[in-house]
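Incident log, support desk, overnight shift.

02:14 A customer reports that sequence design results differ from what the structure should imply. Their input is reproduced verbatim below. On-call engineer (initials T.W.) acknowledged and began investigating.
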């Protein structure tokens, strides 16, 4: 090794260098966003290898996502050139645990029931299916005690490394008294199937290490140095895993930021940071304070916001970066207008309108949303204007399971020949029509040379199935048949779509589902129905979607990134948009309703993560109206907006805010009261803002702010022939009334619209 410091060390500041050069013993790097934690960690790996402290295979580095692992690999390779052969063990807790478990699979299990090295890893769907079978076998009412809830419970236990044999008193009584028993049965079943679920990967490893000291020793000797990024989001099982592996040599370096702990809802414990110094006495604690990522304005806004959290470890952050633009804040009429404006902004960047920012390519831009259902508006808008985008860390909106299911219903309504759609939904929700029933239907269809739907009708008529399945199939065929007629009779497609999802039991399936992702799926379904409104009919909508789906993703072209705030952890982009900053969405309703401030503080940390992703320009937007849970609600700007330090924020006026469309819409939305609330154009001067500031000052804990529903107009107010005003379609004439639904002739064509969404024209 050369006497001169290696070139890769030269760019580091003294604190970072210390973090790299303190080679032995425990190191805890605790520092704010963008201070170069990940960079120091990566350099430390390179340094250990260059000094020959360890061979690549003797280094273990844990990242939070596979994407982060890939990035780290590339960076290390760049730092090292071709001086070192091989690569460290670099991956997520899960991916590394799989590798370890495969080597000792036979040691997992009991009484002659053991894993084999070829074990499979179940996905959530498989897991749920298995749990359902067990619940049924116990004769438990599956409606009241859904499998997803049990899955959630079991995941929670596994996150804490609690096996069925060691459940704390009382916890096994969860799930109507059957929790513990079902958990044990489930674990046995997994062994029989030679399978593990995600939570098992960690728990089995820990159990293995605890039960077999020789095995543990072997791995302790192998991994001479352990490095962990995003340490603040480890859960108990992961912490135990790390502690076991690091106990002997204590060469463990963890980096994290308590202000960025955002996985508490998944069992992560910030407390692990505090425990570190206890479990590894004498740990070198290194604090980094210089932020290299963002402008002073971005940093100032983020720091001001996070200061509202109690019980932080507390950190100083500074930057000597050139001053940039303030964080921009802008409100819009609704989520569509928000997406439209962001699309226009991005196009303006492309046109070079912001010379001060330098060149901004599409790859430099990210849109970070709180909830995945927000993505749809952006995807549709960007499709329309031909702006390349990619959705990171999750399927695109139209590829999600619930959306594909719902679309299959629509497809079958539009086109009875769509056998694929039929197969997808005939037993979703469960109608007791499994593989055998499907075979009967397929057989009947083939015999008669008809599509599956016709085949099903024949099966029903000839009673080729027994019992409940037959009755359910009759209902299903009947529903689709009625829907075909409804299309012919000109029933509005939005109403029809809602009816199909309701009457088929599909919506109920998710409503009764107690899993944590069920509310999100219901939101997505609502969002889907909302998307329908923009089209003349189902057919037109389905065509649009196939176009969205078909767009080719040529990796070589630059794309705007759309992702959730959770998925953006550790990443950075020159330009960041943060849409949907409204109470109820961000912070989300659950956090606002909760007793105490725990949930709210986690949401605030998420906001901090969001702002600190930006290097040069951050823009926060919110909409005055958003459809949540199926109805339009006027929303208040997020309470987090109150908390941004005014000196770092610039409030923008959306173009055309006071134009005819907006004025008319305002009038419809209930006059000045509403206008005042949605006066984002001049947020800081509006009385609403002042009131909110005053309230923020004495706010302790969550404040309930019930969103106001836009004044509803009962259908009885109207008669055929009346002229009405609609926010989107403008003025039109009523040509039909069916209960709460009006058929209105607008310039754009006939629309079926809920009476609540229109106002008498001129009234
Ligand atoms: P986060 O908390 O968001 O994960 P972090 O602390 O891991 O942030 P990094 O991603 O490592 O921060 O670094 C942020 C940016 O600052 C990167 O672009 C990195 O290359 C740059 N950077 C880090 N250290 C230095 C340095 N000493 N000199 C110049 N740039 C640096
Ligand atoms: Mg990082």
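02:41 Re-run completed on a clean worker. Output:
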């Amino acid at each position: 090794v050369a006497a001169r410091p290696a070139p890769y060390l030269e760019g580091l500041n003294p604190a970072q260098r210390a973090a790299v050069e303190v080679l032995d013993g425990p190191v805890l790097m605790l520092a704010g966003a963008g201070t170069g934690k990940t960079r120091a960690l990566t350099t430390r790996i390179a340094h250990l290898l260059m000094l020959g402290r360890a061979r690549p295979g003797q280094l273990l580095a844990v990242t939070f996502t596979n994407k982060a692992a890939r990035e780290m690999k590339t960076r290390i390779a760049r730092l090292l050139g071709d001086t070192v052969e091989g690569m460290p063990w670099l991956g997520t807790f899960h991916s590394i645990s799989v590798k370890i478990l495969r080597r000792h699979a036979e040691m997992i299990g009991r009484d002659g029931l053991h894993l084999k090295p070829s074990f499979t890893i179940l996905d959530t769907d498989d897991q749920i299916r298995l749990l359902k079978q067990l619940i049924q076998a116990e004769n438990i009412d599956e409606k009241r005690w859904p499998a997803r809830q049990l899955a959630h419970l079991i995941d929670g236990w596994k996150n804490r490394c609690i096996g069925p044999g060691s459940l704390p008193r009382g916890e096994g009584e969860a799930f109507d008294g059957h929790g513990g028993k079902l958990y044990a049965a489930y674990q046995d079943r997994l062994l029989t199937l030679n399978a593990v679920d995600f939570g098992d990967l960690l728990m089995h490893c820990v159990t293995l290490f605890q039960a077999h000291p020789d095995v543990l020793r072997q791995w302790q000797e192998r991994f001479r140095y352990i490095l962990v990024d995003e340490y603040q989001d480890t859960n108990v099982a992961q912490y135990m895993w790390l502690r076991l592996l690091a106990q002997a040599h204590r060469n463990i370096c963890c980096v994290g930021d308590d202000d960025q702990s955002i996985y508490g809802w998944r069992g992560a414990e910030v407390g692990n940071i505090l425990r570190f110094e206890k479990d590894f006495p004498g740990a070198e604690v290194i604090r980094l304070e210089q932020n290299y990522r963002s402008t002073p304005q971005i940093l100032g806004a983020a720091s001001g916001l996070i200061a509202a959290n109690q019980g932080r470890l507390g950190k100083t952050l500074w930057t000597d970066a050139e001053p940039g633009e303030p964080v921009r804040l802008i409100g819009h009429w609704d989520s569509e207008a928000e997406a439209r404006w962001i699309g226009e902004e991005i196009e303006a960047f492309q046109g070079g309108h912001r010379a001060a920012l330098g060149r901004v390519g599409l790859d430099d831009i990210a849109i970070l949303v709180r909830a995945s259902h927000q993505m749809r508006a952006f995807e549709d808008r960007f499709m329309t204007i031909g702006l390349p985008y990619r959705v990171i860390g999750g399927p695109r909106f139209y590829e999600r399971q619930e959306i594909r299911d719902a679309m299959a219903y629509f497809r079958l309504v539009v086109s009875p020949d769509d056998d694929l759609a039929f197969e997808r939904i005939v037993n979703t929700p469960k109608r007791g029509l499994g593989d055998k029933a499907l075979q009967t239907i397929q057989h009947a269809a083939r015999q008669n040379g008809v599509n599956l739907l016709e085949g099903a009708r024949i099966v029903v008529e000839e009673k080729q199935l027994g019992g409940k399945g037959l009755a359910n199939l009759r209902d299903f065929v009947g529903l689709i048949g009625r829907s075909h007629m409804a299309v012919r009779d000109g029933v509005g497609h939005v109403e029809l779509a809602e009816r199909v999802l309701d009457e088929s039991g599909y919506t109920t399936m998710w409503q009764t589902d107690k899993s944590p992702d069920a509310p999100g799926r219901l939101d997505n379904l609502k969002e889907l129905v909302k998307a329908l409104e923009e089209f003349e009919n189902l057919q037109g909508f389905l065509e649009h979607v196939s176009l969205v789906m078909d767009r080719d993703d040529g990796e070589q072209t630059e794309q705007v990134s759309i992702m959730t705030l959770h998925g953006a952890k550790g990443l950075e982009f020159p330009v960041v948009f943060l849409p949907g900053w409204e109470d109820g969405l961000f912070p989300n309703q659950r956090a606002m309703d909760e007793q105490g401030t725990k949930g709210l503080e986690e949401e605030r940390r998420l906001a901090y993560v969001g702002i600190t992703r930006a290097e040069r320009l951050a823009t926060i937007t919110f909409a005055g109206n958003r459809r949540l849970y199926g109805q339009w609600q006027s929303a208040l700007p997020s309470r987090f907006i109150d908390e941004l330090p005014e000196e770092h924020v610039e409030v923008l006026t959306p173009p055309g805010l006071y134009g005819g469309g907006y004025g008319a819409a305002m009038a419809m939305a209930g006059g000045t009261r509403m206008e005042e609330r949605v006066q984002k154009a001049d947020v800081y001067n509006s009385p609403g803002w002042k009131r909110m500031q005053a309230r923020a000052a004495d706010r302790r804990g969550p404040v309930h702010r019930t969103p106001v529903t836009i004044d509803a107009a009962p259908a009885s107010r109207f008669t055929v022939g009346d002229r009405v005003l609609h926010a989107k379609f403008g003025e039109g004439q009523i040509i039909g009334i069916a209960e709460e639904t009006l058929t209105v002739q607008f310039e754009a064509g006939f629309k079926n619209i809920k009476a609540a969404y229109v106002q008498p024209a001129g009234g």
